[in-house]
Amino acid sequence: MTGRLVALACGLASLRFMPGLPTGGWLLAAAVLGGVLLFTRLRLPGLFLLGGAWACFFAQQALDDRLAMALDGETRWLQGQVVGLPQRGGGVVRFELEDAVAPGLRLPQRMRLSWYGGPEVRGGERWRLAVTLKRPRGLVNPHAFDYEAWLLARHTGATGSVKAGEPLQRGSGPAAWRDRVRQGIESVPAHGRNGGIAALVLGDGSGIDSADWQLLLNTGTVHLMVISGQHIALLAAVLYGAVALLARFGIWPRRLPWLPCACALAFVGSLGYGLLAGFDVPVQRSCLMTAIALLWRLRFRHLGVLRPLLVAFCVVLAADPLASLQAGFWLSFGAVALLVLIFAGRLGVPPWWRSWWRAQWTMGLALSPLLLAMALPISLSGPLANLIAVPWVSLVSVPLSLLGAALQGVPGLGAGLLWLAGGSLELLFRLLGWIAEWIPAWQATAVPVWAWLLGILGCLLLIVPTGMPVRALGVALLLPTLFPPVERPAWGRADIWLLDVGQGLSVLVRTREHALLYDAGARRGDFDMGERVVLPSLLGLGVRRLDQMLLSHADNDHAGGAGAVMRGMPVARVVSGEPERLPASLGAEACRDQAWEWDGVRLRTWHWEAARTGNDRSCVLSVEARGERIHLTGDIGAQAEAAWIASGEPLPADWLLAPHHGSASSSSAALIGAVAPRGALITRGSHNAFGHPHPTVIARYRAAGAAIHDTAESGALLIRLGERDEVRGLRTQARFWREK
Q1: Lowest pLDDT segment from 5-9, 29-33, 477-481
Q2: C-alpha dihedral over 411, 416, 418, 419, to 10 degrees?
Q3: What CA–CA distance (Å, rounded) separates 33 from 39?
Q4: pLDDT tier at 57 (50, 70, 90 boundaries)?
Q5: 3-state secondary structure of 630
Q6: What string of H, E and C letters represents the secondary structure of 355-400?
Q7: How confident is the model at residue 335 (pLDDT cuts 50, 70, 90)?
Q8: With pLDDT > 70 as the criterion, what percentage of the chain qualifies?
Q9: pLDDT of amino acid 128
Q10: Which of 20, 492, 561, 584 is the most buried (most CB within 10 A)?
Q11: Each residue of 492-537: pLDDT tens digit?
Q12: Where are the transmembrane segments (predicted)?
């Protein structure tokens, strides 16, 4: 039985690792073959094929629900109902719309919309909206968050920005009720921690600012501020324990069997908590796992612990195979499996405090390979932080928050309990901040598959019972993971990474022993490209310090993320064409015409001293390796281009970063003729409001014989300067959910 569950689980989970989905004919053949094999001795391959076929069919249905290509970028009027809790921050209202209809159009079942400067939007309301529709598409960067996979896992078939709208119907149903509960929480003075209370009660983390999220990430305590399996299991355990305690002391009615009643009450309570949290996919998974655990306790304890865990794994993935695209799925099942491994088969019963500490450090160690595979920070302070935070949140913050929310109608009592809950969270965050400063998180460099597999084996050996002779081998097996081989350019060559930062610019120039960052992307509200994209990409590529950060000029789309980069790694020097407009904390120097050499690679900067506009003051960087040259031009316009041509600087180059994202006011015919590039590089946001790149600019480059390489279409771009190779776009990497 266990082998069959493993085979089915592997088939269902294989979806996560597929580069592409099989066509309908191959899918049908796999399903038929799997069904036939079930009636032979080859049941295990049959279950694997059936699981894989079902997962692929399910994923294809979700892909087919995406917005039609013909509607991509179109603005249309539609009607739909707001589901979940709208998020507000930075002047933007973000919400999800379901059951949208428009005359003559087939629209996805669910869409994620943004309304800049929009009015108050409430859960459950029905709106008529003018929306610029977009197919699900995210930034594609090395070792950064995959937004497209996240959207598909949430069954979101389109995104869009709202241009106008009007409410058609007041909110009703569970979504409106949850919104009213959130309004009540927000109205209470709770030490500024109303967002944390809403996260614990409703699963709405939009009220927690980015600094606090980063603190939770660095201390490995994110799971405490989202309604996860831990919270639902805790409530189920409390209700189960209450009935068991009453039965033990003879208070429970004898005519009612206590065990079925305890399991039923625990399940109803966990289901109610899940409904309060919106019953999203992760919450559904938690409720399902809790139900299986209760059923095991009621009827199937004789089967052991591993088999129910496999049943839960298979049921969750059979219900929604796309759950395998979410990091939380693997972390939650990995954590439960580790707890089973840690405590199953141990001789004797150690003191509770020893078991608690063992669980924390073991989980922190053994989950590290999973975090590494998902390009998430590894919290070195996680075991200590969770040792304190888990009981604090579980036994203090969550009960106070739930009771306060439930008793909001009782004058004084509900508000008082929420005030206490906010105070408990304030103390917790202060403590976590102190721990994070004492023991910082570690963003590991991406490791090859062989090193990652050795790291998993090493972790497993380290958590086996003491006294086993092979235990010490685990440390040696971890070394390739802790100190992975970092791919560096050869002497005299350079790697040029044009990161995909939307409507902005950030370029990594890396030689054998040096690294320079040219611009750092934008910061808009709480969304900081430096923090979300640039820094994780640098760390994942093995860059631990920057010899120079060159900010072409001070516009937000070029310099907005610089502060986050400086907070995340040492930066030896900051240079800019507009140092006076940058924050003093950056300590930027003025750009000067100069040349230098790193590891056999020549670099030059040029700056137009007579420039009158910020764009024309951009500091231009030229990099040359083994005769192959690239120009990084910031936002210079036609006048600065003319001054650059007249300066006598060496202009012929293989690659030219199109000035000002390919705007009509730049990339003059004179510049293109002087540079004569074989490739034009454009960094911009898809469907940007500025119309970049301008069609006449694209025509100009093509007429000169230059190939166009666009981050909006290809994702992050890599040029191996000095090898005279072609540009590599990360979007070409095969992922079944990613558009080419």
Answers
A1: 477-481
A2: 140
A3: 10
A4: very high
A5: strand
A6: HHHHHHHHHHHHCHHHHHHCCCCECCCHHHHHHHHHHHHHHHHHHH
A7: confident
A8: 95
A9: 97
A10: 561
A11: 999 999 999 999 999 999 999 999 999 999 998 778 999 999 999 9
A12: 44-63, 232-251, 257-283, 329-349, 417-436, 442-464
- Three-class secondary structure of residue 203 per DSSP: coil
Higher pLDDT, 472 or 727: 727
Distance from CA of residue 188 to its chain's centroid?
31
Higher pLDDT, 453 or 666: 666
Q: Are 635 and 552 contacting, i.e. CB atoms less than 8 angstroms apart? A: yes
Side-by-side strand order, sheet with 515-518: 589-590, 574-576, 548-551, 515-518, 507-510, 494-498, 717-721, 728-729
User: What is the 8-class DSSP label of residue 639?
Assistant: H
- Looking only at Cα atoms, what is the longest distance across the chain? 98
Look-up: residue for tokens 């997962």? 55
Residue-wise pLDDT for 656-689, tens only, equals 999 999 999 999 999 999 999 999 999 999 888 8
Dig out the tokens for 329 from the structure. Answer: 């799925």
Q: At what angle do helices 173-186 and 398-406 cross, to 10 degrees?
A: 110
Given a cut of 50, whether residue 449 has pLDDT beyond it is yes
User: Given a cut of 50, is residue 347 above it in pLDDT?
Assistant: no
**Crossing angle of helices 306-319/281-299, nearest 10°?**
150
Rounded CA gap, 180 and 115, in Å?
Answer: 21
Q: Shortest CA distance to 490 belongs to which of 652, 715, 725?
A: 725
Q: Which CATH class is domain 494-732?
A: alpha beta
Separation of alpha carbons 337 and 342, rounded Å: 9
Alpha-carbon separation of residue 629 from 234, 474, 621 (angstroms): 60, 46, 11
List all residues 6 or more positions away from 195 whose beta carbon is below 8 Å from its beta carbon.
Answer: 205, 206, 207, 208, 209, 212
**Where are any strands of DSSP class E within 375-500?**
494-498
pLDDT tens string 374-388? 777 788 888 888 888
The model's pLDDT over 10-48, given as tens digits with 9 standing for 90+, comes to 999 999 999 999 988 899 999 999 999 988 888 899 999
> What contacts 274, CB < 8 A, 6 or more positions away?
227, 232, 283, 284, 286, 287
Cis peptide before 350 (omega within 30 of 0): no
Structure token pair of residue 504: 């902005």
- The conformational region for residue 635 under phi > 0 = left, psi -120 to 50 = alpha, else beta, is alpha
| Domain boundaries of the chain, sorted by first residue | 2-64, 70-171, 346-378+446-485, 494-732
DSSP 3-state assignment of 342?
Answer: helix
How many secondary structure helices (H) and strands (E) does the chain include? 27, 22
Q: CB atoms < 10 A from the CB of 4, how many?
A: 16
Q: Kindly indicate the confidence band of residue 302, based on its pLDDT and cuts at 50, 70 and 90.
A: low
Report pLDDT for 355: 63
> How is domain 70-171 classified at the architecture level of CATH?
Beta Barrel (2.40)
Residue in the block written with tokens 């266990």: 2
Give the contacts of 580 (CB within 8 A, at least 6 positions apart). Answer: none
Structure tokens of 41? 């001795």
Triad 528, 534, 538: Cα angle to 5°: 150
Amino acid identity of residue 360, one-letter, is: Q
Averaged pLDDT for residues 272-293: 79
Cα 149 to Cα 294: distance, rounded to the nearest angstrom: 32
Measured at the CA of 437, the angle between CA 567 and CA 544, to 5 degrees, comes to 40
Give Cβ neighbours of residue 219 (< 8 Å, ≥ 6 apart). Answer: 379, 381, 382, 385, 389, 432, 435, 436, 441
| Of the listed ranges 103-112, 297-306, 414-423, 685-694, the one predicted with least confidence | 297-306
Averaged over 66-71, what is the pLDDT? 94
Q: Which two tokens stand for residue 95?
A: 């919400």
